[in-house]
Amino acid sequence: MNNLRDLTKKLNSPIKSERWYAIEEMGRLIKKGEIIGQESEEVNNHVHTIYSFSPYSPAYAAFLAWKAGLRTIGIMDHDSIAGGEELLYAGQNFGLATTVGIEIRVNFSNTRIQGRQINSPDSKNIAYIALHGIARNQFSRTEEFLKPIKERRNIRNYFMVERMNQFFITLGIEKIDYYQDVFPLSKADEGGSITERHLLFALAKKLIQKNGKGEKLINFLKEKLKIFIPDKIKSYLMDTTNQNYTYDLLGILKSSFMENIYLEPDYEECISVYEAIDFAHSINAIPAYAYLGDVLESPTGDKKSQNFEDDYLEELFAEIKKIGFKAVTYMPPRNTAQQLQRVQKLCQDYHLMEISGVDINQPRQSFNCPQILNPSFRHLIDMTWALIAHEKLTNYNLRYALFHEQNPLRNHSLAYKLKVYSAIGRQIDPYNPEHVVHLLPEE
Q1: How confident is the model over 89-104, as a mean pLDDT?
Q2: Residues of 261-285 as b/e, b for ≥16 C-beta within 10 angstroms?
Q3: End-to-end CA distance of the chain
Q4: Domains of the chain, residue spans
């Protein structure tokens, strides 16, 4: 038992070599049946790791997914694919199917929806999109594509920290040093990105250092920062033994303070949507628009109630289809049944693949998503297996990419192709996922 605890801890070690050793050892225990996970048909294609912002390494995220009974896991880091190889290795050892993608922000200039609030809470004309199903042999190209985006983002990060320091200079909060306090919280030295959450995590630590935990800190937030704290979050912050304290504080800072120091990204950081789609097609990834929908209550507690793309959704779908998107990704727990029924119908009308995922980036979130077992969403499980087949077949030969112009099934409907690829995905051996030659679809 002590050995299992040590291995589990090492799966989330900050040292990569320790994680890779733990992956192999944990894989042996799983294969021997000495540890047993839950059983479920659940899948998740949108888990963040330490290579953007998350409490989980790719190895540990894969283990928690396996333990929770998920059949597949997909990582979706902001501006980084550095965790891809580790996730694939963990999946091969744990017998867990995997998929790798990235999440980036783009600008919608020169489109019909230019200048509108799309799906980014902080900016107009900016939208989050996902590139799903990136084949292993395209990781290096993807990393090169992301380098200038991260460089621009880091410049903006630096100046947001400076704004933060100016804001707190009269409140007795110790100055935050970008390179000593923020950079070490990330995996930027290994190809990871630095996000706004890293900045706020550094701030949260300084606020705790100054005020301690509990009532004094809560009073500081209310009186000095004019932050309204919901009762649930207040109970978390009153609990001085709360192991997730810094993450809970970060959440309230993101929803209620971030706007005070936020700087708009430029269009070198948030590149043109056309450029992003062209790149996705060049590597045969599946570009997906990330549907947010009007937010009434944030499931993660770090987003305000806001209106987004629901008011012009039909126009949006027509435009993303024209631009070259191949899919829409959405999160069943985030939206109402009415919102999701509308999205599903529009996906069918515009022949867009549906991809699901639950955005996991903080420790209070469960890896389980029972909503996906609802009859209204079970087809998303099939879509995940099709996504996995696409990724593994693309790695074998580009023409087998789901949307490749020379795909053997190119003359068939999207529904038929997804059905065939879903069946292939389920047949791929997760312990040997690159052995797919016997599963290739025929003309």
Answers
A1: 98
A2: bbeebeeebbbebbebbebbbebbb
A3: 52
A4: 2-138+270-439, 148-260
Rg over alpha carbons for the chain, rounded to the nearest Å, is 22
Q: Say if residue 200's pLDDT is above 70.
A: yes
Strand partners, 76: 101
pLDDT of residue 299: 47
CB 218, CB 234: distance < 8 Å? yes
State the Cα–Cα distance between residues 394 and 387, nearest whole angstrom: 10
Kindly state the helix (H) or strand (E) to which residue 107 belongs, with its residue range.
strand 97-107
Contact 224, 341 (CB under 8 A): no
Name residue 233's amino acid: I
Cα separation, 167 vs 52, in Å, equals 26
Whole-number Å distance between alpha carbons of 137 and 100:
12
**What's the pLDDT band for 304 if we cut at 50, 70, 90?**
low
pLDDT of residue 303 exceeding 60, the answer is no
Over residues 191-212, the mean pLDDT reads 97
**CATH number of this structure's domain 2-138+270-439, picked from the four choices 3.20.20.140, 3.40.225.10, 3.20.20.70, 3.90.1150.10:** 3.20.20.140
Which structure tokens are listed for 122?
């902080």
Give the DSSP letter of residue 188: G
Q: How confident is the model at residue 300 (pLDDT cuts 50, 70, 90)?
A: very low
Closest-CA residue to 82 (of 149, 139, 23): 139
Going by their DSSP bridges, the two strands 327-330 and 286-290 should be labelled as: parallel
Q: What pLDDT shows up at residue 2?
A: 59
Instruction: Specify the pLDDT at position 305.
Output: 64
Q: Say yes or no to pLDDT of 287 above 80.
A: yes
Tallying the residues shown for the chain, one arrives at 443
**What residue type is 7 in one-letter code?**
L
Q: CB of 398 within 8 A of CB of 404?
A: yes
